[in-house]
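Hi C.,

You asked whether I'd gotten around to modeling the 507-residue construct. I have! Everything is below, sequence then structure, no commentary in between.
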Amino acid sequence: MTTLVHGSDTLTRDALTVLQPGFVGTTAPDWLLRRIGEGLSSVGLFGRNIVTPEQLTALTTRLRAERDDVLVAIDEEGGDVTRLEVKQGSSFPGNYALGSVDDVELTRAVARELGRRLAQCGVDLNWAPSADVNSNAENPVIGVRSFGPDPDLVARHTVAYVDGLQGVGVAACTKHFPGHGDTNVDSHDALPRIDVDLATLHARELVPFRAAVAAGTKAVMSAHILLSALDPHRPATLSPQILTGLLRQELGFEGLIVTDGMEMQAVSATYGIERGSVLAIAAGADAICVGGGLCDEDTVLRLRDALVNAVRTGELPEERLADAAARVRALAAWTQAHRARGAGSVPGAAVQEGTAPGAEIGLVAARRALRVTRGEHPYTPVTSAPYVASFTPVANFAVGDETPWGIAAELERLLPGTETGSYDETTADSALTAAGERRVVAVVRDLHRHPWMIRALDGLLAARPDTVVVEMGLNEAEPRGALHIATHGAARVCGRAAAEAVVGTGA
């Protein structure tokens, strides 16, 4: 690796400043600390970096011992996408559950408590909330991460979520601009394309982002999607028309523009991460998110040197890079000021008096989000240990496959001896054989999207009409079973609320 300029050079520092890299491990590696000392201003955390709140606090404290204004970012949406509780499942329901309740004060309270926990651990930039309008029920990557299909509903809950996070000193990063909801392709895998006219985009996709900008969101994350009506050639992350023309000039956003992960195939497969990063900064982005997959020092150096070289060859104006770095530093100053005013002696805390709604707010919200539909025959609550058949689709990259989901663990707590099995691309026969004489609880996720799952559930209900059906994804299919429970998400608290309903102690 050739270092183009000396580490103290302004250009090199600016190039490091605009990077938001990840790393491997639960303690800060030496290379990361060294680069922070040279100008790296942000670090992104993922589930692999977190074990306990105490460990996370020690990690962020160590990072700030190197540089007290470093931005520590995380992808903590709550619900299905959690990094704080990647091994346990989230204590908070996700956006779809909150949107289904449609109580903005509840959404604000959930975001505030989530933000309080992040702040206590020293995290001050959250790559959330998702402001995508989930107008396509076949969307494989947004789904329950969206507040719903109605633009106005999504807008008011996005505003409440931003208010909740930023009220406790955690910067919100509203995503995925200009809207990832009307896609049937996951941008982790390929480039999604949205071919609707400008009128539709303004009336649907852009409504929540206009609201978030007006509410003062500190950051916005771009999407790796092609919107032909805005830019037929480049994805939004690399498009001056979208980032500068639309977001900066038309919507009037003055905060930090962060890219989605640059190693995602929607960008990297065509442009590579180095050229993609240069094009993103040139288009108007201020911070390059990388590290979900590429999380080593060499990645940081490659991107740093690509940006420096682009300035030296004239491809990237030096003032554009300097402006991007200045916006990163401005956000870091805002978060640092909140930490300085924070409560108590907890490192990283930024909690204001009277703002914490209580640790159980997530469970309260999950219980309120339940939709329970009784079948044609009288329902008898499950009172002895049942068999839980979980029909498991392939998890998308954002959710990951590390985080447990379902209701078996919560039913085991209420009904010791509960047994469970996980099935994919299967028929009902194996589940029926495993269940024996036990009552069956069938757990599905986005039933409407998976023909194999529909066939398996059909067979199960034909043989065992007293089966309870729990839908933990989008509630698009007609209610089925002796009792149908829609949780509007697969967070751990959603599973607990559903288990209470199964045994007759909940909704």
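If it helps when you're writing up: The first helix runs from residue 10 to 17.

Thanks,
B.
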